[in-house]
Structure formats: structure tokens, C-alpha cells
Design goal:
about 350 residues; 8-stranded parallel β-sheet; 3-stranded antiparallel β-sheet; Metal_Hydrolase; decarboxylase; aminocarboxymuconate-semialdehyde decarboxylase activity; hydrolase
């Protein structure tokens, strides 16, 4: 399939990268919870958390050349790089999370600097401390990152929390794109089996984040804030009828921070295309608009789209529509011009 279709310039907004070697943060900071990489075989490592196995990764998670080779096979021209959400570390002491964030952000900036036509970088920030988060956001911009990746919540705060608002305001003022990614899944203690935190909790986390931004008035108060949400917005689109009806029948509960109907914000934010289902892709394109749905694959992880762009190519042969989904929406979200990647 892939070899035959006319190649459309392609940006993948949802890919994760780690440095090959992480410091031993537990030793450095004197307490646990941090990820450590155990390189136990060539081109492979175990992500370990306090001696517990978290996930096996391969060198495509850290090696830019391996990524570029696989992008060549997959016809992906540009990858947007962000850290693996388990690295957010919002639960740690803010100055330690700042240290980790700087380490990760410098690595991503360095990869982008080496291959500016192939990679766009997003930073991570210590969101549990708004001032520190804003100062690292400013530094991210200064080292050439295009935005930040944040979690769907910050410890006990949802994204409508008043203390987070100045951070979103700074993102708008600095023109930094925001990528919201589920992490630390709600109810995970009640879902010990079947990988359910990833299958049930993650989609709910994305919907929680969108609902918080809508009902909390963040989108309303920051009209130029550019937000994209992972996994097609999770369960938001599928449950939007319920959300809207809830607002209609109980405005006394839903409209306390923002008086406007949730439908006002459809098309106000971006989602990636990672829904693994052609009917759902059609549904989110109808709901959000084709210029608000951008290719995202979760490369290099197995829950992602294993052949980037396959679903979009199956969905349509319309070149104009395909162009929106494969790069147009992404460029709008990032506020970047396509010519930057095509020039010599």
C-alpha cells in the first residue's frame, strides 16, 4: 500500500524520545520514583522504576539515526519529539523536576539542532511549580523548541486549576504550542489487570483534560493558545453528546467557571489521528475539522500506529484532505511554515 501512493509531505506530531543515558536521579536526589535505563543488550534497554520493570525500549527510542532510517521506510518527513510522559515527574520536588526537565529539553534541542529539517522539539516543565514552569518554558523557546508537552493533570490539579492559568497564558504569549498527553492514569489502582490503565484510563485522561480546559474557561480566556491532545482526544469525541447534554440540563454544575456551551470549543483545539479505527477517524474529522486532526503515531511504542499514516491513506484518496491530515493541521498547531522544511 505505502509504496504506491503519491508521497504527501508528512509530519508526525506524536513521537517520544529519551536520551540514551539517564543520570541515576534516585542516587542524585536521595529518593525514589524516577526512571533509570538499564542497558542490558546491544540496542536495547529496560526502563526501570525503583527496581520495577516499566517498559523495554530499543535504540529507536534514543538514536536519531535509527529514527531517521525508520522515517525513511515510513515516509515521515518530520517528527515532533517529546519525552516519554513517565518522565514528567510532577510528583518530585520542583527543583529536581526542573533539573530533569532541563536535562531532557537540552537533549531534544540538540537532536533538533543537528537535524533541523527532520525534527521539531517539545519540552517538558515542572508544572507543579508555575513560576519554575514558566521560566523553563521561556528557556525552551530560547533553545529552539516549538512548544511543550504536558500531562493531563498535575498531581491533584486538573488543567482548569487557577494556579496553572499563568502557565497557559505564558504559552499563548510566547507562541508555544501545547501537547497534552495522558499520564498517571486515574483509577489505575482499581485496574491491575489487562493493561486497563492504558486502554480505559488513558482515553478518559484526555477527555478529563479537554473538559477541564473547556469548562474552566482556559480556551475562552486564551483565544490564541494552541493546544493539541493525544489519541484523538481520547474518549472526548465519543462522549461529547453526554458532555453537551450535561451542560444543557445542569448548568448549575457545569457552567460555574465558563458560561458558554461546550460546542463552542469544537475546532478550537487540535487532536492527533491515533484512533486505530477508520470510523473513529471519520468521526473526529467531522467533529473537529480536518485542519484540526494531525497525524500522530506514538512512535516508537507498540500501542501506536505501526505503519505511520496508514489509517489516513486508507481513509481518503483526496489529496487536499490528505495534505491537511498529514501536515496542514500540524503546521497550524505549531505555527510553523512548511517552506522551512523544503528549502535547501
Amino acid at each position: 500500500m505505502c509504496a504506491h501512493h503519491h508521497h504527501t509531505f508528512t509530519i508526525d506530531i506524536h513521537t517520544h524520545i529519551l536520551p540514551e543515558h539517564l543520570p541515576d536521579f534516585k542516587k542524585k536526589f536521595g529518593y525514589g520514583g524516577f526512571i533509570f535505563l538499564e542497558h542490558h543488550a546491544p540496542c536495547r534497554a529496560r526502563m526501570m522504576q525503583d527496581g520495577r520493570f516499566f517498559r523495554e525500549i530499543e535504540d529507536n527510542c534514543w538514536d536519531a539515526n535509527t529514527r531517521l532510517r525508520e522515517c525513511g521506510v515510513h515516509h515521515v518527513d518530520v517528527q515532533v519529539l517529546s519525552t516519554v510522559p513517565v518522565m514528567f515527574s510532577y510528583w518530585a520536588k520542583p527543583e529536581h523536576t526542573l533539573y530533569i526537565s532541563k536535562f531532557l529539553n537540552d537533549h531534544i534541542a540538540e537532536v533538533v539542532h543537528r537535524y533541523p529539517k527532520r525534527f521539531i522539539g517539545l519540552g517538558t516543565v515542572p508544572l507543579q511549580d508555575t513560576e519554575l514552569a514558566i521560566s523553563e518554558l521561556e528557556r525552551c523557546k530560547s533553545i529552539g523548541l516549538a512548544g511543550v508537552e504536558i500531562g493531563t493533570h498535575v498531581n491533584d490539579l486538573n488543567l482548569d486549576a487557577p494556579q496553572l492559568f499563568p502557565f497557559f497564558e505564558a504559552c499563548q504569549d510566547l507562541g508555544m504550542a501545547v501537547f497534552v498527553h495522558p499520564w498517571d492514569m486515574m483509577g489505575k489502582e482499581k485496574m491491575p489487570k489487562y493493561w486497563l490503565p492504558w486502554l480505559v484510563g488513558m482515553p478518559a485522561e484526555s477527555s478529563l483534560a479537554i473538559c477541564s480546559l473547556i469548562f474552566g474557561g482556559v480556551f475562552e480566556r486564551l483565544p490564541n493558545l494552541r493546544v493539541a491532545v493525544a489519541h484523538g482526544g481520547g474518549s472526548f469525541a465519543a462522549t461529547f453528546g453526554r458532555i453537551a447534554h450535561g451542560f444543557d440540563v445542569r448548568p448549575d454544575l457545569c457552567a460555574i467557571d465558563n458560561p458558554y456551551h461546550p460546542s463552542r470549543y469544537l475546532g478550537r483545539f487540535w487532536v492527533d489521528s491515533l484512533v486505530h479505527d477508520i470510523n473513529m477517524l471519520d468521526f473526529i474529522i467531522r467533529m473537529f475539522g480536518a485542519d484540526r486532526v494531525a497525524l500522530g503515531t506514538d512512535y516508537p511504542f507498540p500501542l501506536g500506529e505501526l505503519t505511520p499514516g496508514e489509517l489516513i491513506h486508507q481513509y481518503t484518496d483526496d489529496e487536499e484532505l490528505k495534505a491537511k491530515l498529514l501536515h496542514g493541521a500540524a503546521l497550524q498547531w505549531l505555527n510553523i511554515d512548511k517552506s522551512l522544511f523544503l528549502a535547501d
